[in-house]
Amino acid sequence: MKTIYKLSALALLAQLSGHGLASPAATGLDRHGFDAQVRAQDDLYRAVNGQWIKATAIPGDRAVIGTFTDLSDRADARLRSIVEGLAAKPQRPGSKEAQIGAFYSAYLDLDAIERAGLAPMQPLLAEIDAIDSRAALAQWQGRMQGRVLTPLQLDVLPDFKQPGVNRALLRQSGLGLPSRDYYLKADDARMARARAAYIAYLTLLAGQLGEPAPAEAAQRVMALEQRIAALHWDEVESRDSVKIYNPHTPAQLQGLVPAYDWQGLLAAAQMRQVDKLVVWQPSAAVGIAKLLAEEPLADWKLYQKLHSLDAHAAVLPKTIREARFAFRGTALTGASEERPRWQQGINAVNEALGEALGQLYVAKHFPAAHKARMQALVANLMAAFGDSIDTLDWMSAETKAQAKIKLSKYSVKIGYPDAWRDYGALQVRAGDALGNRDRAVAFEWARIAAKLGQPVDRGEWGMFPQQVNAYYEPTTNEIVFPAAILQPPFFDMKADDAVNYGAIGAIIGHEISHGFDDDGSQFDGDGMLRNWWTETDRKAFEAVGAKLVKQYAGYEAIPGKQVNGQLTLGENIADLSGLQVAYKAYQRSLKGKPAPVLGGLSGEQRFFMGWSQGWREKMREERSLQLLTADPHAPAEFRANGAPVNIDAFHQAFGTKPGDKLYKPSAERIRIW
Question: What range(s) does the Peptidase M13 N-terminal domain occupy (predicted)?
Answer without folding.
Answer: 41-417
